[in-house]
Amino acid sequence: NTKKITVLGLGAMGTAIARAWLSAGYELTVWNRTVSRAEPLTTEGAKIAATAFDAVAASDLVVACLLDDASVGEVLADADLMGKDLVNITTSTPGKAGDRAEWAAGRGARYLDGGIMAVPPMIGDLDSGAYVFYSGSPELFAAHRDALAVPAATRYVGEDSGSAALHDVALLSAMTGMFAGVSHAFALMRGTEVAPKEFAALLIEWLTAMAPYANGVAAHLETGDYTLGVTSNLEMMVEANGTLLRTAEEQGVSPELLSPFMTLMERRLADGHGDEGTTGVIDLLLR
Ligand code: NDP
Q1: ipTM
Q2: DSSP 3-state percent helix, strand, coil across the chain (nearest 5)
Q3: pTM, whole model, 2 decimals?
Q4: Rounded to the nearest whole angstrom, what is the distance from the C-alpha of residue 68 to the centroid of ligand 1?
Q5: Fold type of domain 167-285
Q6: What are the pocket residues of ligand 1 if the criterion is a CB atom closer than 6 Å to any ligand atom?
Q7: Which top CATH class is 4-159?
């Protein structure tokens, strides 16, 4: 159970994470390419390393929170990782995370990849709902789970190093769809007398009520029966899409955020699946 940690990268996220460890009494060595961003942390007890090489040498547990995978490669190019535990919480793709894991193993380090499900203000606040997906070395995770749980809760999602990034990106992708829907809805309401704040409350209530849709999809995928428990079938929904599109037209709002999903629903209907929900769209996406 180490109390010594090195943090590489003090952007908004790296700084929040470093602060959480400092206030929990961990002995921190930090390094940032732009040293002025590291300096404020010295008053909170952090030691600044002159180089990334020195920073890595200072602790057995090394945490990288950099911009992207390329910057991780650059920063650690000359570092001696032999015997180190490298935790990389830089956002990446599953493929790049897997490559980075092999690269780390080749240099004698145990490797854990992380995907942060939080924004910086949520870090260190254990009631915020913040957590980090981790995947990779189970031994590394077991050895440092207490330390890792200080900035945010932890969710270990398997030995495959790419798993954390895949979970992270899958959730962010779902969020992107939600952002698209919210954008379209506000566009429809623009120019009306409804205050955006008032409409936001309705949106939150509705989206929350609709969120269990994911359970229905899961049941379809698990049973292979895409009609199971369907109360709004595809035939009816494609019909309703027409109303959504005509309303967009009436309100002078482009349908471009809605159309791609609707097109897939229509294709699935045309394939003869009018009694299903929307789960069949997933099959159309796989290539
Ligand atoms: P910032 O843009 O605030 O910081 C980026 C960090 O990367 C800085 O420390 C920067 O150094 C460093 N950096 C960038 N390029 C290089 C390079 N070539 N060599 C050395 N250092 C480099 O980003 P965040 O701190 O917000 O994000 C860090 C990671 O956390 C990212 O992978 C991000 O996706 C992830 N994350 C962030 C969230 C957020 O809300 N902020 C949410 C979830 C994940 P310098 O100061 O010198 O520019």
Answers
A1: 0.99
A2: 55, 15, 35
A3: 0.95
A4: 7
A5: N-(1-d-carboxylethyl)-l-norvaline Dehydrogenase; domain 2 (1.10.1040)
A6: 9-14, 32-34, 37, 65-67, 71, 74-75, 90-91, 116, 119-120
A7: alpha beta
